[in-house]
Write a structure and sequence with these properties.
Rossmann fold, single chain, 6-stranded parallel β-sheet, 2 domains, binds beta-D-galactopyranose, about 375 residues
């Protein structure tokens, strides 16, 4: 909770400077209350439920009414939901997109109706009508994914005569976050590839080739199965996997188990990280299977978003935002970027349970 409070305080300080910005916000003069539209990509992934709840509960506590919709990972559903919210007269839109480039018409309509748009976690692309971006530092998150492999596979001690063998997975190609995750990880891993101590037997390295549309764990599992049967016959043993998302990590481990990893001498489970700190992955970490994950505290992201909405609704100008890092193809979007934490067995207690992100009971402890 300390972290959440700290971030909340930072945002409050950042947002302290006053000044009218959006007609949409300032027209709401009655103590800033009104209807806020919140759209999340899917209910079938644990994190977005937490995100949706954090934003909704936070806004309701401040007296706002919230229309929270989940889009079932279907772009047509998401566009319809946003259209409806604009028609209903929401004062601000908070959008976590499915395909970051697919909402330009909706964003233009929002701008015409003077509704500020906050891009939530995933950057809305190719549109000038995006006012703010609230997320984590996605490049740093990617760096942490790289660090997980560097530390877990002891790459600093590896020698070219006996290279460490890995395969790489990336996130959804239509999600701009995938770019930061991939770039951050690959920049960390590059020196080890250059020294020849890290090898990818499939040769599949480009983000375009290793991407996982809609972050679909079943698709990743199929790709892992294909890689194992095509490139891992004989003596070749997979040592590690770069994974950008916990469900992908778990399904890759399943594919490996199915061909004897973890149950055959000389074939331990490959070391894999992940992202999102979902319950199943933390359980797997505690059981000694998945090695690590990157925790992006959805409560902090929710709290930062709530504070930003409230600031705009009061007609104030948020200040202290990052105005350099995130160009969406049409403009630089002022961003609030939070910090993430690597979680291994060693700090589950301190960073996951003690902070209340997951309870011991949820983790089966
Ligand atoms: C990304 C997000 C990740 C993960 C993924 C799949 O946009 O940054 O944390 O949740 O989507 O939902």
């Amino acid at each position: 909770m300390k972290r959440v409070k700290r971030i909340l305080m930072t945002v409050l300080v950042l947002c302290a400077a006053a000044g009218a910005v959006f007609a949409g916000g300032s027209s709401q003069s009655t103590a800033g209350k009104g209807l806020i539209g919140v759209v999340m990509p899917t209910r079938s992934e644990e994190r977005w439920i937490k995100d949706g709840n954090a934003v909704k509960e936070g806004l309701e506590k401040l007296g706002y009414t919230v229309d929270l919709q989940y889009s079932d990972d279907d772009i047509a559903t998401q566009t319809r939901q946003i259209d409806d919210m604009i028609t209903k007269g929401v004062k601000i839109l908070v959008i976590a997109s499915i395909d970051g480039s697919a909402l330009s018409n909706q964003l233009a309509n929002a701008a015409a109706a003077k509704i500020p748009v906050i891009s939530y976690d995933r950057l809305l692309m190719q549109s000038p009508n995006v006012d703010y971006y609230v997320s984590f530092d996605n490049y740093k998150v990617g760096g942490q994914m790289g660090d997980i492999l560097i530390t877990g596979l002891k790459l600093d001690q590896a020698v070219a005569a006996k290279p460490v063998i890995v395969e790489l997975f990336a996130g959804s190609p239509d999600d701009n976050n995938s770019v930061g995750f991939y770039q951050g990880a690959m920049d960390k891993l590059k020196p080890y590839f250059d020294r020849g101590v890290l090898k990818v037997p499939s040769g599949q390295i480009d983000r375009a080739v290793i991407g996982t549309l809609r972050w679909d764990a079943a698709e990743a599992q199929k790709r892992m199965e294909n890689l194992l049967s095509a490139y891992y016959s004989g003596d070749v043993v997979l040592n590690g996997i770069l994974s950008p998302y916990d469900p992908i990590s778990l399904s890759c481990l399943e594919a490996c188990k199915a061909v004897g990893y973890g149950s055959t001498p000389g074939k331990p489970l490959p070391l894999v990280g992940g992202q999102d700190c979902i319950v199943a992955s933390v359980k797997s970490i505690l059981a000694g299977e998945q090695y690590a994950t990157v925790l992006k505290d959805t409560r902090s992201l929710g709290a930062a978003t709530v504070t930003l909405v409230d600031t705009l609704m009061q007609g104030k100008t948020p200040t202290g935002l990052d105005t350099k890092s995130y160009h969406n193809g049409a403009k630089i979007v002022p961003s609030l970027l939070l910090d993430s934490v690597i979680v291994t067995k060693d700090n589950v207690q301190k960073d996951v349970i003690d902070t209340g992100y997951h309870t011991a009971a949820e983790l089966g402890l």
